[in-house]
Specification:
This protein is of the alpha+beta class. It has 4 domains: 61 residues, Ubiquitin-like (UB roll) (Roll); 75 residues, Nucleic acid-binding proteins (OB fold (Dihydrolipoamide Acetyltransferase, E2P)), CATH 2.40.50; 115 residues; 74 residues, Ribonuclease E, catalytic domain (Hypothetical Protein Ychn, Chain: A, 3-Layer(aba) Sandwich). Helix content is 27%, strand content 32%. It contains 8 helices and 19 strands. The strands form 4 sheets. The protein has a 6-stranded mixed sheet with strand order 11-12-13-14-16-15, with helices on one face. The protein has a 5-stranded mixed beta barrel with strand order 4-5-6-8-7. The chain has a 4-stranded mixed sheet with strand order 3-2-1-10, with helices on both faces. A hairpin with a 4-residue loop joins β4 and β5. α3 runs parallel beside α4 and α6 packs across α7. The model has no long low-confidence stretch (mean pLDDT 94).
Length: 348
């Protein structure tokens, strides 16, 4: 995928969202929420206590002070470890599903488990991901973040020139399927080739947006693939995910296997509940942003947000931040807003 990267930072009560785009499409969505645990976040340096050693599996489980245990791979750790010892570690991959964060050993530490150095700020992370871009804020950033958030929930993505790409994670791997659709071409083989090349770039973007890593299997279109051209395109598309990307050749079944390092918690886990739909926390933050938008548009108006109790309960701690800004003109009411609407903002 060609085009320049742009960076956006949207800050709202209770949540900040950072977005990078590539060629005008959302490429990454970084989320920081009030209540996040710094010692569980990517890049944090933590004093961690060895809670359990499993030498048969080659792993150490570490108490990070808060949240799930960190996991240290003992391979390459040239230091005698014992249960109860304090280590200094860096978070290298955030927790996902039922698995705790993975850490990198820095040395022996002292004292109780705690965060020694917080993770990089959103601004720092955005600047690293898009070093040539000026970070955009304000309404443009709000729109970019809303668009990126909505796309995280999508499964099927249109390919430039025709055809589609579907991305579906499972427990073992992420399956990516390429569909030719109504894509044109001088010959069927040329149409398949151009669709596969477009799909590799789009797959890399979507996987970064969704924060997915591990084994990725891409089911390509057609037969008799130009494996060298496809691998070259895949290396270029997944270059931003290095170091650590590994690729197998195109199999005789037309599948390309790629191992992508896991670093971020999958974005859908930040946004969705167990049913795959927006969680009550996500809906509460959307409701807060809707109240903010209405209050800013009508400086004298008073507004109430209607939502189910599980949503208003999540929004209540954030509402005072808005009311300090807007003079107490906003309120919440635990009330079902009606079919098809997760919440509603009305004037009072």
């Amino acid at each position: 995928m060609s085009g320049k990267r742009a960076a956006y930072l949207d800050e709202a009560p209770g949540e900040a969202r950072g977005v990078t785009t590539l060629g005008g499409k959302p490429e990454r969505l970084l989320i920081v929420r009030t209540g996040d645990i710094p010692s569980q976040s990517l890049g944090a340096v933590v004093a961690a206590r060895v809670r359990k050693l499993d030498r048969r599996a080659g792993l150490a489980f570490l108490d990070l002070g808060e949240g799930p245990d960190g996991i240290l791979n003992l391979n390459g750790v040239d230091h005698p470890l014992t249960e109860g010892l304090t280590l200094e570690v860096e978070i290298r991959a955030e927790a996902r599903a039922e698995k705790g964060p993975t850490v990198r050993f820095l040395g022996e530490g002292q004292g109780a488990p705690r965060c020694l150095r917080p993770p990089p700020s959103l601004e720092e992370r955005l600047q690293r991901l898009a070093p040539e871009a000026r970070i955009v804020t304000g309404s443009a950033a709000r729109g970019a973040a809303d668009l990126a958030e909505a796309e995280v929930f999508e499964t099927v993505f249109a390919l430039p020139g025709g055809g589609t790409l579907s991305v579906e994670p499972t427990r073992a791997l992420t399956a990516v399927d390429v569909d030719l659709g109504d894509r044109g071409g001088a010959t069927p083989k040329q149409a398949s080739r151009s669709a596969n090349l477009a799909a590799l770039a789009e797959a890399a973007r979507v996987l970064r947006l969704k924060g997915l890593g591990g084994l990725v299997v891409i089911d390509l279109i057609g037969q008799g693939h130009d494996a060298q051209a496809l691998l070259a395109a895949a290396r270029a598309a997944f270059a931003p995910d290095n170091p650590g990307v590994a690729m197998a050749g195109v199999s005789r079944f037309g599948a390309l296997e790629i191992a992508v390092p896991r670093r971020m918690r999958p974005t859908i886990e930040r946004l969705a509940g167990a049913d795959g739909q927006p969680s009550s926390e996500t809906l509460a933050l959307r409701l807060v942003r809707a109240l903010e938008r209405e209050a800013a548009a009508d400086p004298g108006g008073r507004f109430v947000g209607l939502a189910p109790a599980e949503v208003t309960t999540r929004a209540e701690p954030v509402l005072p931040l808005l009311n300090r800004r807007f003079g107490g003109r906003l309120s919440l009411r635990a009330e079902w807003p009606g079919a098809g609407a997760p919440f509603l903002v009305i004037p009072v």
